[in-house]
Design brief:
alpha/beta, 12 strands, single chain, 362 residues
Length: 362
Amino acid sequence: MTTVGIIGCGSAGLALAAHLMQQGTTVRDMVDQNHQLLDRLHRSGKLTMSGHLGSGTFALPELSDDYSSLAECDVIFIATTADRHIAVARTLAQTLNQGQLCVLVTGYVNGAAAFAGVLSDAGFPGADESVIAMNTSPHLSYASGDGSLHIAAVKSWFEVSGTTPEAAARGASVLKHWFPAAAAARHQLASSLNNPNPIAHVPAAVLNAVAASREAHGLIPPQGAFHLGDFGAPALESLRNGLDAERLAVMKGLGMGRYSLSRTTFAARAYGPGARETAPPRIGPTFQRRLVTEDVPCGLVPLEHLGLQAGIPTPDMTALISLLCSLEGQDFRAHPAARARTVALRCAAITGQPHRERAPLT
């Protein structure tokens, strides 16, 4: 029987755990570096699920901050935010064994190749065959940190990419056991570029920065993690459409036009009939930090880099990245997560196999 380990005890990790345990899969260990979160989960001792997969209570798997506890797991889901993947790969490389499969939830741009590159640099052999990435998470979920979990949607489609088409096909065949919606990517880099999160999230964070700050400081009540759409506006949709047009132009310029999906087409596939609740509860913060800290370095920055390679202008993308660098007081273009992706991106994208020309990462 396949045994599973999960890195990340947040919403994505707990949703995976509940989904797999509901199907009778052994989730052996869950690992997280957030000791405050681990303490809260230890005190709860159980995982209480509600929402689209029904209701249920499960005993929590073994919880730890030690990656070596995953040594006996056949499949390891990395359910941290993508900006944490480089640190995860460096640590995991010390205990990972041949034959274990690492699944990134979600990989973002060129995620599988970037993660495999860090594993290889850390001395792990065969990394290219050991890493796959989803181009969107299988669930839309929120966990409060005390063992309560609500799943508002189960995606009706997602793609699995790898460093090679063969790795993606093998990985998809493994995931289909739990997620029938999983499909092997036709083009590895294009699959990761089709993830619409950076296009949707970053403009929402920028145009609602005042509301996000007031919510974070308790000055206004949150509308809930499933209700970012309450803060929509024509100007926001215009900016999203402009960003999506730039993304599609970059993909076309690099020869990936026939594999590209607009964000509306992607959403229609991922949220097919019956995939999500019609009226999800208002729980959790509306504006989460990952809308910036994940989507900018792991999404927009690599897209801007590809635009430069292809000679395709991306003025909206460049302006948003530069503005957020100023607002956040950090250079997202120099973020390790961005560098791991951009040094791996060259016009070998045309072959469908993300190229990895690695450089030292700090």
